[in-house]
Amino acid sequence: MSLSPNFQPLYKQVYDYMTAKLVRGELKPSEALPSEQALAAELNVSQGTVRKALDLMVSENLLERRQGKGTFVSEFTQESSLFRFFHFREPNGSHLIPDSKIISIKRRACTKAEAKHLSLQAKEKIVELRRVRTLKNKPVIVEKIIQPLSVFPDIDKMDDLPNSLYTLYQEKFAISIVEVREELRAVTVPSDYASYLEIDAGAAVLLVERASVNIDGRIVEWSEAFCKTEDFVYSVNLR
Amino acid sequence: MSLSPNFQPLYKQVYDYMTAKLVRGELKPSEALPSEQALAAELNVSQGTVRKALDLMVSENLLERRQGKGTFVSEFTQESSLFRFFHFREPNGSHLIPDSKIISIKRRACTKAEAKHLSLQAKEKIVELRRVRTLKNKPVIVEKIIQPLSVFPDIDKMDDLPNSLYTLYQEKFAISIVEVREELRAVTVPSDYASYLEIDAGAAVLLVERASVNIDGRIVEWSEAFCKTEDFVYSVNLR
DNA sequence: CAGTGGTCTAGACCACCTT
DNA sequence: AGGTGGTCTAGACCACTGC
Question: How far from the centroid of its chain's Cα atoms is residue B19's Cα?
């Protein structure tokens, strides 16, 4: 195997080469990579160059290193990274993942807004999934999730959807979410959602609009979540 | 100069040594560091080890490299990093920093809650600053900012406070904010804030509680911001 | 024990900036 | 031309893992 001759630094070429393998699914989550020495020999570069490329991927959460064992493709579903994209927690600080219950699943043509957010053709088929999430038997979030059928074939025909959809995406659809983009607003709760959240009409809720980005850069999921933030807050740490 | 003999990796010791210089103010924002070669000679390590330490600091936004010129202490006030901790923008995507107007400045003893958030002694003196921020002459945010006087001596006696407080902190008080921790909730607007935001009582607003962390790890500012999210949203990208 | 990643070094050459 | 950071290499030794 040799690298294509660009004017990119070698380590960047190695990075692109390895990332492409991830995108194509040739390397699967939790799978071990060849050792740095082996990769260096295969690609005709030094171990230090391979190391620099893998360091970059580790910093992007694509890979994990385990000293003495090897380098592995990140398992996004692991306990350690389960909270990576879930930012709600109780005000005292404890992270709890709420249960979820499906309200409805519908297959339909996308709206113009959805087509724009998800870069879809007009009238392309999507699945609209609505769920209510509960914590200690109290509802805290109602969400509407839009999934293009071109990305998730027949996802609406699966028996039971897991609490963590990203795990499902990774295992059944070869979709690895590596980034989410969110916009937050405070709104009064929509009337058809108030009862699910067991709050009065007119109450303030947090609206989180989220675009989920696959490892190949495509936005593959679009969602709206209405959240009751009485005993549940959205927390962000930024450095 | 030689390093203290711990069981830390060399590059980590170099990192700690350089970061301590930043904390003590021996290196000031925009100041150039000695060259990697010079640092390596001074500390009796190789250039590669110095490079690894500085790389770490660059990844934490403490330093900036400019090829051919040198390595510099980050100027947090620069255009490029001005938006680092400011997450509001218009829904179409453009970043605008709103103007701000001071409502009140008071010096008083801290409350119990403030003492807890800011790790203060009971009854320690603080300054409470209230500002309203406007965009295109329309109010969008009302904020209450708590500043311990032990950290910011006589800050309430300054002539005019700039729009960007962090710039002031850096230039006048040797405080460099490197991290913020925020909690977000949707609430109905407090009655005394509704008029500042020019909205009806009972409207939903976004409450952002923020702790600002200095380079030495201390939380040096605590604030609450009530935001009208009609034409202004809070946006987050997470990878 | 062998194999892996983690650290550290020394030296080479390149790309960029200033003078 | 001389100095800076950026890339790349080759080789050494250490720390951790599993057999």
Answer: 17
